[in-house]
Amino acid sequence: MNADAEEAVGAHRAGVGVESPATSQHLQEEKWGYDLYPERRGEKYKPSLAKIALLGEGRESADKMKCEKNVWGCVQSSPLVKLMMAALKSSGCEVDLTRHISCEVCDVTVNGGYDSELNQVIVCQNVTRTEGMTQGVLAHELIHMFDYCRNKLDFKNVEHLACTEIRAANLTHCSFLSAMFQGDASPFKIAKAHQDCVKTKAAFSVMAIRRIDEAEARAVVDRVFDKCYNDLEPIGRRIRRNSLDMYKAYQDRYAFGYE
Ligand SMILES: [Zn+2]
């Protein structure tokens, strides 16, 4: 499989979707990402006895229902998710919820993923539990799906991977998500801080998927940074904190030729 381990499934960690470099230790070159998404291997996730005792057996199906409800909520009401879905449709890659978005039990270090082999976004139902988190995961992973649709990215090519991670961090986590989760920041520092955020987030995403160290990941990110950071398709703008940008981006979709 060729999923981007959150991603490549690239790995998104619980919380604000930061991928954990620690998980890369468990991944082997040939099967990066597999361990993070047990259900991708056609296996049912088998919780330990301790987990069964704590959570009860009914928890998993309840989680799936809640996860699917959150996905549905985002598709109905999140301008960002609606924009990404419109962009995908206009690019000839229309999203069918039941085919392309899957709620699954994942390793607890990730909150979502994109499996390019099956062209599916994975939402980790045991980690991504709120609609807000679901929106973040969907927006991020749909950017990977868009890049794959548009350019047939090779997620095993580390520069392609770095590029799509830069774009996802740029257009979602370091803008819109930080707007929700971070406190106040001086507008004068935002441009610099934003670039640093994107570089760090992208490097950690790459490290979660590939077995390379931070210096190497940062070097790859730096090589493709300018080109990928300035590629704002399909959102068209970096979404600023506490602003109406998310709604403006959705309204502007006509200008980009999306429905
Ligand atoms: Zn990613």
Automatic annotation (TrEMBL):
Molecular function terms from GO: metal ion binding; metalloendopeptidase activity
One Pfam family this sequence matches: Peptidase_M76
GO annotation, cellular component aspect: mitochondrion
Protein's UniProt keywords contain Lipid biosynthesis: no
Keyword Hydrolase: yes
EC number of this enzyme: 3.4.24.-
Any one GO biological process: mitochondrial protein processing
Keywords: Hydrolase, Metal-binding, Metalloprotease, Protease
Protein origin, superkingdom: Eukaryota
Disordered: annotated span: 1-24
Record family assignment: Belongs to the peptidase M76 family.
Protein name as annotated: Mitochondrial inner membrane protease ATP23
